[in-house]
Amino acid sequence: MQIDLNPLAYFKELHLVPRAIFAIGGVFFFSGLVGRNVELILFGIGLIFVALAWNLVLNAFWSHPYDGRLQFWWGGLAQAIPIILVGLLCIYLAAYMYRHGSLPPYFQRALPAKPNNSP
Q1: Interatomic CA distance for residues 3 and 82, integer angstroms
Q2: Is residue 110 in some structural domain?
């Protein structure tokens, strides 16, 4: 048994296009961390989730090893749907924050009114 010590060995299972989108999302995520920009962080997370969902959809189709028939794995689609929804939500929030400067009103926490302690 050979152990692969390459830190990028986990990405061997990803297809080419999802791997590229995942890497671009990672660059946006880490540049947002360095620049302390929430929009870039959300956009990077959204791209990462979209790439993971795309890879799950691609892995849902596989050919049978003995007769070559195309098979479909419903579990891959069931996992891809919530992941793509979370990714699209992150991208939507990043675009909204970039355009308006704050979160949408339905995502903001309702703050209690400050009590008036003046005599």
Answers
A1: 33
A2: no
Is residue 2, in this structure, part of any structural domain at all? Answer: no
Quickly list DSSP for the chain.
------TTGGGGGS-HHHHHHHHHHHHHHHHHHHHT-HHHHHHHHHHHHHHHHHHHHHHHEEE-TTT--EEE-HHHHHHHHHHHHHHHHHHHHHHHHHHHSS--GGGSPPPPPPP----
Q: Is the pLDDT of residue 94 over 90?
A: yes
Domain that holds residue 99: 14-63+70-105
Query: How sure is the predictor about 49, in pLDDT bands with cuts at 50, 70 and 90?
Result: very high
- The tally of domains found in the chain comes to 1
> In angstroms, rounded to a whole number, what is the distance separating the alpha carbons of residues 110 and 103?
12
In a domain, 115, yes or no: no
What are the phi and psi torsion angles at 28 (to 5°)?
Answer: -60, -40
pLDDT of residue 61: 82
Residue for token digits 């989108």? 21
Residue 16 is predicted with a pLDDT of 76
